[in-house]
Amino acid sequence: MIRVVLPAHLRTLAHVDGEVQVDVRGEATVRSVLDALEELYPVLRGTIRDHGTLQRRPFLRYFVCAEDWSLESPDTRLPEAVVNGAEPFFVIGAIAGG
Amino acid sequence: MSKVRVLVGTHKGAFILSSDGKRKNWEVSEPLFAGWEIYHMKGSPADPNRIYASQTSGWFGQIIQRSSDGSKTWETPGGEKMPTPGEFPAGASNKFVYDVSPETGKPLTTHQWYDGTQHPWEFKRVWHLEPSLTDPDTVYAGVEDAALFKSTNGAQTWQELSGLRGHGTGPKWSPGAGGMGLHSILLDARNSQRMYIAISAAGAFRTDDGGKTWKPINKGLRSNYIPDPDAEIGHCVHHIALHPSRPDVVFMQKHWDVMRTDNAGDQWTEVSGNLPTDFGFVIDVHAHEPDTIYVVPIKSDGHHFPIDGKLQVYRSRSGGNEWEALTKGLPQRDCYVNVLRDAMAIDSLDSCGVYFGTTGGQVYCSSDSGDSWAPIAENLPAVFSVEVQTLP
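^ inputs. structure came back:
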């Protein structure tokens, strides 16, 4: 079970409070976590990754174990601490706009 | 007694303003979709309980919201639950994908970028939602980068009407300062096959076959800010409007110039007349007088606020050329707000109501065709759009 922390606006959109938990198919990677998240909460499709390209939206970043994973390959295996639920997978919105 | 429901899209959420037919006392709702940009909301003429909203964010992209109970509750069509086999794919209501299919999406085009080079189409947001006049589940979406989409299942899924982008002039379209948005969609109540749209900064276009094929309708427009002022396309049309009883007559607020056509766009004539400035964004038509039109003159494209700090609506009762300033109840000093292109609406009560919203967060109402005005909300976020529903 992977723990995922979403930005407040996406929690509102998905009607969830606090962290969400997802089961991934196969290896735990950025791609498989987001696939599982979007399957569980279809309204999030297109809000984190572009519909067509599946590229991360520009003002969002992925953080794992205090490290920025935004530019990692989406198929790189996530750290064990995330896989075993000790640490969450963060989707973070950029602080922008002044 | 009749009621009115004003749908206000703002920089930080949507608001519903409600009143009875007197339009004196108003209730302002709590913010809907708080924190998100609501570019546009509009109710279905066929079922006023059905309302669509375009919810967008620079962070999270596009969401389409839908209400089927007059704004009591909202849903993201297709995104509420996991689909079972045979259902529509979930989460598709915000999926606006340009048509690239060999059958209908060719030729693929690029459009002109700010520097004159060609640039691929990139979906950014929905600027305008136009529900069908007859079917609550059919709705059109005008998007940036400019294209027209249609849903026939209540916004669960969208298909591009790609004949617009592909008809030939697409590579010459270029963005205005606010982006390359398809912002105006007019449906012809007498001819279901005819539709007008307008794009900044490409111009106006018309289909006579339900959206399959399109042609530019910009003859007579003159724009001194483009290399060929009389070009077939490239004009920065800000908004267009018509009266349902006379759909061949269309009024236009262009970047500069207020224009009119009497033959469905085949030829336009300037009707700016005695306006103090003919720059502006909104234009709309009285509910019962097809030759009574409204604009809000803005000082210039370099200012984006009214002349001399005076917020004035101008009304013509002759379909243009002769204009009168409407000022009663509007601030006549120190007012430096703008009124954006989709931020004016008209109700259809006997004493016609006119509404507009400002970038300063005020929404004004006139319940006497513009003779006098009063604020019905004064401290909202910057207003992007205003629509009104006249309810039994």
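Chain B touches chain A at residues 35-36, 57-63, 76, 78-83, 90-92, 94-97, 123 (CB under 8 Å). Chain B has no helices and 29 strands.
thumbs up if we can close this ticket
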